[in-house]
Design brief:
The protein is of the alpha/beta class and 370 residues long. The chain contains 15 helices and twelve strands. Helix 6 links the parallel strand 6 and strand 7. The chain starts with a strand and ends with a helix.
């Protein structure tokens, strides 16, 4: 097994390399952003044939033929030497590399949900045409992937959401550190903010639509604060099957790398006798604006999802940079969604253009431009 890891210094990339080291998986490519210190350590340990970074000056600083920018990223997404591409890049930056990996017929361990949210139809068709195989890394979709191995197609699928840090109680003044204190999962900053707004779950609804071919009427969401049940499926006779496990991203990453083989658990397995209760609460769209956006993104032409994706990306960046308060994030996304006229997308160029439109509309709204 030879793998290329995009987003190697992030949470998904770091955990992937932990698993690769444990099982002596050959790492042929590493792509990272600006965390050069961590990347140097990874290069020293894994000795990949190819390395890519975001900026030219960082590539020159590292030396030794290091690739950089868009071209470098796309090269590592399509390496002939790689049997598997782990797509751990966060945000809309992962869309084009995912498309390139699909175009190259790769087996893809996909942790970048924005790829399918923005370009689900285009990337899905490209994957089928080139015999690429996508295994979702997100805990919910990885669970559904396993539950859907049943020969009978379920009547509906149910995604669970922790509810984020403010499900129980929201402070009167929300600080960035409050938002980034997720109660059950250790994740990167962007996805942690998305979890707090529930946009992460809205995007997962759209991702499930493209991964598993379910309509909006067959996709449900439940708030489950314990993050023990990652997904459920309801069969035709009403029977529910659930996928349970610890809140440890190494489990779905490991499954995605070695599928269909199962390796020993990377952490202590779930002990049901220690659980003091599992709670489930409805997530009605009228109460949770992000969930309403999720259904809109499924039901309306796919440019809407791409535009919302871009708007969310910029709004979250602005929040993390201290430019807008937490409450403003959803206001910006909803505002952008209302002025966009949804239409079909037929190419990766159109997908990226729609994402760019969303980012630009969000920028103008935040900065007060007309």
């Amino acid at each position: 097994m030879r793998i290329s890891v995009l987003g190697s210094t992030g949470v998904i990339g770091t955990l992937t390399l932990e698993i690769a080291e444990k099982y002596s998986v050959e790492v042929v490519g590493l792509a990272a952003g600006r965390n050069l210190g961590k990347l140097r350590e990874q290069v020293k340990k894994f000795k990949p044939r190819y390395v890519a970074v975001e900026r030219r000056e960082d590539a020159e600083r590292l030396g030794g033929g290091v690739l950089w920018g868009r071209d470098g990223l796309l090269r590592l997404a399509s390496l002939e030497e790689a049997d598997l591409v782990v797509m751990g890049i966060s945000g809309v930056a992962g869309i084009e590399p995912t498309y390139m990996a699909a175009s190259s017929g790769k087996r893809i361990a996909l942790a970048n949900k924005e790829s399918l949210v923005s370009g689900g139809r285009v990337i899905g068709e490209t994957a089928r045409e080139n015999s690429a195989f996508i295994i979702p890394v997100d805990s919910e979709h990885n669970s559904l992937f396993q539950l859907l191995l049943f020969p009978e197609k379920p009547r509906e699928i149910i995604l669970t959401a922790s509810g984020g840090p403010f499900f129980r109680q929201k402070p009167s003044v929300v600080k960035i550190e409050d938002v980034l204190s997720h109660p059950t999962w250790r994740m990167g900053k962007k996805i942690t903010v998305d979890s707090a707004t529930l946009m992460n779950k809205a995007f997962e609804m759209v991702e499930a639509r493209w991964l598993f071919d379910f309509g909006a009427e067959n996709i449900k969401v439940l708030i489950h604060p314990q993050s023990v049940v990652h997904a459920l499926v309801r069969m035709r006779d009403g029977t529910l099957f659930a996928h349970l496990g610890p809140a440890d991203m190494r489990i779905p990453i490991q499954y995605s790398i070695f599928y269909p083989e199962r390796k020993p658990p990377p952490s202590p397995p779930l002990d049901l006798s220690t659980l003091r209760g599992l709670e489930f609460y409805p997530a009605p769209p009228e109460k949770y604006p992000a969930i309403e956006l999720g259904y809109r993104m499924i039901e309306e032409p796919c440019s809407l999802a791409a535009v919302i994706n871009g708007a969310n990306d910029f709004a979250v960046e602005s929040f993390l940079d201290g430019k807008i308060p937490f409450e403003k994030i959803l206001d910006v996304i909803i505002g952008v969604s209302r002025v966009h006229k949804p239409h079909p997308l037929s190419s990766i160029e159109e997908v990226l253009e729609a994402v760019g439109e969303g980012r630009e509309r969000a920028r103008k709204m935040i900065e007060g431009e007309k």
